[in-house]
Each structure stands twice: as C-alpha cells, then as structure tokens.
Amino acid sequence: MTMKDFIEQEKRRLQESLHWFNSRGSRMTVRESGDLFLDTLVDSFTVTRIAPHFDAAGNHLRTDFWLLWKALGYDEGFQHAHTIKVVDVRVEDTLTAEHDGKEAEGWLIVELTDDLGRIHHVEMLEPVSEPELAADWQRWIAYRQKNAERFRRIDDQLLDEHLRIAEDWS
C-alpha cells in the first residue's frame, strides 16, 4: 500500500465514523479550560486533511486530522463554519446499523480534542429525549433541501476555503 492509499483509507475511515452525526444530526459543546465556550447543533462534519503519525519501525500510532464543521445556519455567514485540527479522539459510544445499504459502525458520542486543548463533545441527536432539538434539525434539513442549489454553491465554496485553511495549517 502506498502512502497515498493509506491516507485515503484513513481519511475514509474517519469520515465514515462521523456518518451518524451527518445523517441524523448532532449537538456539540465546546469547552475551553473547563468552561463552556459553545453549545450548538451541527449540520455536518467533513474530514479535510489527515496527518498520520508512525513510530521508528513504521507502525501507525495515531492520526491527527483537520475537520470542517458547519453549524445550523451556516448559510448566514462564514462565522458558522469552522476548521479544527483534532489531535485526540475519545469514543464514548458507537452504533452499528445499516447505512447506505451496508452495515456500518459510527460514533454516537465522541470527544475530540483540538490543538488548542479545547474539548469538542459531540453526541448524535436523540429524538425521544431531545424532541425540540430533533425538530430543529428536521426543519433545518427541510430548509436545506428546499434550497438545494443555493446550498450546493455555498458548500462548494466553503469546502474550497476550508481545504486551503487545512493545507496552510502549520
């Protein structure tokens, strides 16, 4: 396997781990120095770049990755789309179920630590225990689908911009 193949495989694995958040909605809180910094519903997560780490023998140790996340309402301005560099992942719960015609495992609850030490706690929305949040998510999805062409343009522009941000990150 070439390094390029490894990178594509690892990037795909990470993106697939996020699919329940992207397809069923998620809530994310961000803590900085223990204090709540942000509490928001997230439209989607996209892995834009990875940086695998290997030991001297060539064994894969871990992977840092750059993650574009977009909050609900991201069509209202750039301040609702963010790229973070994830340096640690702590998975608290997963779900294995059918997704896109095949069985898939993905994260349900995860803590992502960024390079600034902020903790991004992400949980898949649970419609039974969080009906108001789930309703907000469904209204957002309907709005996004109703304005599909507009969102396609916005999404393309944001992805281009955030790919550059990830590539320029030192």
Report on the structure:
This protein has helices at 3-17, 19-24, 131-146, 148-168, and strands spanning 26-32, 35-54, 60-71, 81-99, 102-114, 119-124. By secondary structure, it is of the alpha+beta class. It has one domain (3-168). It has a six-stranded antiparallel beta barrel with strand order 1-2-3-4-5-6. A hairpin with a 5-residue loop joins strand 2 (35-54) and strand 3. It is globular. The mean pLDDT is 95.
Descriptive tags:
170 residues, alpha+beta, 6-stranded antiparallel beta barrel, 4 helices, 34% helix, 45% strand
Biggest sheet: strands side by side, in what order? 1-2-3-4-5-6
Number of domains as seen in the coordinates: 1
The overall pLDDT, averaged over residues, is 95
Q: State which percent range the strand residues make up.
A: over 45%
Largest sheet: 6 strands, antiparallel, barrel
- Cα distance, first to last residue? 27 Å
What is the helical fraction, as a range of percent? 25-40%
How would you sum up this structure in a few lines?
The chain is α+β, with helices and mostly antiparallel strands. The protein is built from four helices and six strands. 34% of the residues lie in helices and 45% in strands.
Outline the secondary-structure elements.
Blueprint: H1 3-17, H2 19-24, E1 26-32, E2 35-54, E3 60-71, E4 81-99, E5 102-114, E6 119-124, H3 131-146, H4 148-168
Antiparallel strand pairs: 1-2, 1-6, 2-3, 3-4, 4-5, 5-6
